[in-house]
Structure formats: structure tokens, C-alpha cells
Amino acid sequence: MISLPNSLLQEVDGIVSKQKVNRSYLIREAMCMYISEMKKRQIREKLQAGYIEMSKINLLLANEAVQAENEAVETIESMVSGA
């Protein structure tokens, strides 16, 4: 058995009356929608955490690439200048 405040129960009764369904159907649908939204939220949170982690890795790789590029420029400049 589920307990609902009277105000919510009145809203539910209004909806089931308009849609010509029963309370059980409406509650089942609402629960399915809630579970679906929770799963979507969990996926979004996991994706966000993954993107944050990848951004840290990408920043490290970019810094390494800049250092390597700077070393290459210095090497070329010294070769060109004959040093």
C-alpha cells in the first residue's frame, strides 16, 4: 500500500479521470519514468566524470607536446645558426 497526501491524490485522480486510466497504471508509468530519468542522470554523471578525467590527461599530453616542440625548435635553430 502507498500513502499519498490528499492534495497529491486529488491531482492523481484528476489525471486518471482525464486519461481514462486507473491509479495503478499511472503510478506504474510514473515509477518507470522516474527510474528511466535516474538512469539517464547516472549516465550523465559518469560521462561528466570521464570528460573531467580525460581533460586532465589531455592537458598533460598537450604540455608534453609543447615541451617537445620547443626542444625541436631549439635544435633546428641551433642547426641553422651553425652552433
Structural notes for this entry:
By secondary structure, this protein is mainly alpha-helical. The protein contains two helices and no strands. The protein has helices spanning 6-19, 23-81.
User: Based on CA inertia axes, which overall geometry fits?
Assistant: rod-shaped
Which structural class is indicated by helix and strand composition? mainly alpha
Total domains: 1
Q: Give the DSSP E fraction (strand runs of 2 or more residues).
A: under 5%
Q: What is the alpha-carbon Rg in Å?
A: 30 Å
Largest sheet: none
Give the overall pLDDT as a whole number: 94
Helical proportion, percent range? over 70%
Determine the N-to-C terminus distance. 87 Å
| Count of alpha/pi helices | 2
Order of helices and strands: HH
The number of distinct β-strands equals: 0
- Oligomer designation: single chain
* Uncertain spans: none
Q: What's the short version?
A:
The chain is mainly alpha-helical. Helices cover 88% and strands 0% of the residues. The protein starts with 5 loop residues before the first helix and ends with a helix.
List keywords for this structure.
83 residues; mainly alpha; 88% helix; 0% strand; rod-shaped
Task: Provide the fold topology.
Layout: H1 6-19, H2 23-81
